[in-house]
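Students often ask why we bother encoding 3D structure as a string. The short answer is that it lets us treat folding as translation between two languages. Here is a chain of 224 residues written in the first language.
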Amino acid sequence: MTKAKFIKFIIASVLAIVALFLPYESLGFDAASPMGILNPLEIRVIGVFVMAALFWILQPFPIWSTSMLVIVLMIVTMSDSSLTPFRVDGVTMISHKSIMATFANPIIMLFLGGFFLAAAATKYKMDLNLARVLLKPFGKNPKFVLLGLMLITAVFSMFMSNTATAAMMLAILAPVLKLFDENDRGKAAFALAIPLGANIGGMVASSARKAIFHGRGCSAASFG
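And here it is in the second language, the structure alphabet:
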């Protein structure tokens, strides 16, 4: 770990710990508020959320390791199988089965399938051929290549699920990102172009509405 990444790790960890000790009652989470007083389990969820968000933004570790760390922390500190020091009397702990079930969420499986296809395309150089064919009309100017990626993603999203399109387009994006230096901010712009283009195309696609309805269903189940 480099010095810069270690500093980012310390900053994210300290802010996550601070989130655990904030005076939430003074911030409006008291008995009179609609949500009521936050119990220790809910405060831990906030702390883990802050930690994960900062780790994903600052990236002191690879993104995938942060995702795994969230699951481990939730099982160790918040589940019904948590370690004894983290048990809270009078508070119902989260089922460890429901936490592990997030691995089998249909949306996660959809993205995993897209990642497998992208890995296979990269192995057999299909990504390079796709990038040459699809991006050739947009020339070599980065601005037009970026526009081309967004347009291609948007068009695909009009005929298939926008989430599947975003995962599939990673195969085309991979050889493009290799042209950038490690610290070039242009990599972030190109990476964000894929989900942005998928969302734009998904707004006018009937097949993409399935994901929207799924999101609404999750919201209704969570908040009534």
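Translate back mentally: The chain has two domains: 3-103, 107-213. Keep this in mind for the problem set.
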